[in-house]
């Protein structure tokens, strides 16, 4: 089993996967509890449009993906906050238009299917040490910001109206949350891909909520489930000769099914928030 660590690309994949495995559920728990779990899908699709645009104009695809997903995050939150459209409708608009834009721009850029496949579903073989540094810096910024504003986000997550009445700038923190989600989506391009990152944001959290008794317990359990999914998916993809991204997602789905089975037997008490 340890022979896989003889290859540098697998060592880099495990390091990058560990960072994403911690980062995704850390922000994902706030998104899921706020019924905003699908935002990862929407941002991933629109980020693909940014990647294709970057290829077309010969700019850094990752930077373009970040710019597109950040603008999309602001657009989704604005539509939701104005009350004209529900959050799910706003996400659906950006999701479908983002993928369509990406496919059209990729065609205009004359990029091969293999290049598109790497962005959509991940390409750990192409990971470089510089990519790991970039992922680590993004994770540090996102998790550090979440730690600083954790109390406000916690309050808003469980009682937005009371938080608003208490003087908390709910709109600001909502925008901050979706921008951090955009950063997280872009950071996972090579690990699980733009179309699959939503699963890593949602499935480990959903699994943890089956058995956790408190918010803190749910967070750490989600991180554990995420890391199991990443490690299991990377090992499985190596021995089964499958794509790492989809294999990680299927492993996360298996973890969720097992957690649901445990819940049926154990029946833990409902999630109790912790300050």
Structural summary, described in words:
The protein is mostly helical. It has a single domain (2-266), classed as ABC transporter involved in vitamin B12 uptake, BtuC (Orthogonal Bundle), CATH 1.10.3470.10. The chain is 78% helix and 0% strand. The chain contains twelve helices and no strands. The chain has helices spanning 8-33, 39-57, 61-81, 87-109, 113-121, 129-148, 150-158, 160-165, 170-187, 197-211, 215-240, 244-266. The longest helix has 26 residues, at 8-33. The protein is globular and about 55 Å long.
Summarize this entry quickly.
The protein is mainly α and 275 residues long. The protein contains 12 helices and no strands.
Note the topology.
Layout: H1 8-33, H2 39-57, H3 61-81, H4 87-109, H5 113-121, H6 129-148, H7 150-158, H8 160-165, H9 170-187, H10 197-211, H11 215-240, H12 244-266
Quote the CATH topology. Answer: ABC transporter involved in vitamin B12 uptake, BtuC
For this structure, what is the CATH homologous superfamily? ABC transporter involved in vitamin B12 uptake, BtuC
Percentage of residues in strands? under 5%
Global shape: globular
CATH architecture: Orthogonal Bundle
Number of helices: 12
Low-pLDDT sequence parts = none
Mean pLDDT: 85
The largest pleated sheet is described as:
none
Question: Termini, distance in Å?
Answer: 42 Å
What order do the helices and strands follow?
A: HHHHHHHHHHHH
Sheet/helix structural class: mainly alpha
CATH C-level = Mainly Alpha
Radius of gyration: 18 Å
Percentage of residues in helical conformation: over 70%
What is the β-strand count? 0
Total domains, how many? Answer: 1
């Amino acid at each position: 089993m340890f022979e896989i660590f003889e290859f540098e690309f697998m060592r880099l994949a495990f390091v990058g996967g560990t960072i994403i495995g911690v980062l995704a559920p850390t922000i994902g728990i706030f998104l899921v509890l706020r019924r905003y779990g699908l935002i990862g899908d929407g941002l991933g699709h629109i980020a693909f449009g940014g990647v294709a645009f970057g290829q077309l104009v010969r700019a850094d695809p990752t930077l373009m993906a970040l710019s597109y997903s950040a603008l999309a995050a602001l657009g989704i939150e604005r539509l939701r906050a104005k009350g004209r459209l529900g959050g799910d409708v706003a996400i659906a608009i950006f999701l479908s238009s983002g993928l369509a834009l990406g496919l059209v721009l990729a065609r205009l850029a004359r990029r091969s299917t293999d290049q598109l496949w790497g962005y959509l579903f991940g390409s750990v073989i192409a990971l470089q040490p510089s990519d790991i540094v970039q992922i680590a810096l993004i994770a540090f910024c996102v998790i550090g910001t979440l730690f600083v504003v954790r109390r406000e986000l916690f309050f808003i997550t469980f009682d937005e109206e009371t938080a608003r009445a208490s003087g908390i700038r709910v709109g600001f923190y909502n925008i901050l949350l979706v921008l951090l989600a955009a950063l997280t989506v872009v950071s996972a391009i090579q690990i699980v891909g733009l179309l699959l990152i939503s699963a890593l944001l949602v499935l480990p959290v959903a699994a943890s909520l089956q058995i956790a008794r408190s918010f803190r317990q749910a967070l750490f359990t989600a991180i554990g489930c995420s890391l199991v999914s990443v490690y299991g998916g990377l090992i499985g993809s190596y021995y089964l000769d499958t794509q790492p991204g989809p294999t990680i997602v299927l492993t996360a789905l298996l973890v969720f099914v097992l957690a649901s089975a445990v819940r049926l037997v154990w029946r833990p008490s409902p999630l109790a928030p912790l300050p």
